[in-house]
Amino acid sequence: MSEISLGIIGGGQLGSMLAIAAKKLNIKTVIFCDDIDAPAQNFCDQFINGNYYDKEKISEFINHVDVVTYEFENIPFETLNEINKVKPVFPKPSVNRLIQHRIAEKDFINKLNIRTTRYVSIEKKTDIDALEDFLPGILKTTTLGYDGKGQYPINSIKDFNSLNIDFSKGYILEKLVKLKQEISVVITRFGNNKYEIYEPIENIHEDQILKHSRIPANINDKIFTQSKEWAMHIAEELKYIGTLCVEYFIDRNDNLYVNEIAPRVHNSGHLTINAFNISQFENHVRAVCNLNQIPLKKISNAKMINLLGAQILNYRNSTKLKANEFFFDYLKKEIKEKRKMGHITILL
Ligand code: ADP
Ligand code: MG
After folding, report:
1. What pTM value is reported for the model?
2. Ligand 1: which residue has its CA nearest to atom 14?
């Protein structure tokens, strides 16, 4: 069998975990990242540092790989599209373009008759006439947001008027859902109606950043089934290849809403590394490299805890881990407040 070389754009912790999964499958990885300190260079076979618009560097990358995927959604569409003319990119660049824009993403989900939060596009500061209906709400940049970045809580028109932000960028105002719980469904699509789907994962956020994830999620049967069905419907409609994650809200009346889609492996799915026979990362590599599909088997219930900022220091060089605890250090050079530095998975 000839060796496959997988190109991964983005060199953060998701890129690292994809590279680790690929290695296990005897697949070579080449990571392209604009950050010279990208942690994933510690785990891949080859690392190329360059700007995502740098045509020369991108063509060097293309020459070294057979197939390309990406670990985060904010990659310029033109770059993915250019690569895709020469080597296959999965998921398709058009999927990425759709999902990186919060309004296009929500319009798409609603067209499938799947519920999202109520939302309105805000293009300029004077667009406040019809806002009352969407308050209290959260104003978000339509593109480039993550871990709660670019989000502003808006309780009143007064809050809105006193915002000092650049409206040339494009925003979405979302009605605040009175949250009872948040869950996510991670799914890998291999082709027409061919899936591996993980059970819903329950997520706890603090300051809009994921703090804990656990299985089983404490949800009723209807939500259990509906969240999986909606994830399948979305993946099928996108003709998606690889792993994707659907983030959901559950309100106090047990209504389910799609919050957002991540066209990639997801933080809430880290527990799949230890809790299932095949992780979300391995499934992604298997799907994009066209390898065979292996039926998922759950090994254990589990809880994952994100280690933010200096919390990582308590675990580095620690010998205190129990046999059911698994520590991952993302090997990021710099500790920053609220930065995801590593995680612990505990099998329950
Ligand atoms: P990000 O791209 O940063 O993950 P999200 O839209 O998922 O952005 O928001 C992050 C978190 O903020 C959510 O998981 C949720 O806890 C909270 N949040 C965001 N939008 C809403 C909303 N409309 N109603 C209630 N909570 C929200
Ligand atoms: Mg989110």
Report:
1. 0.95
2. 208
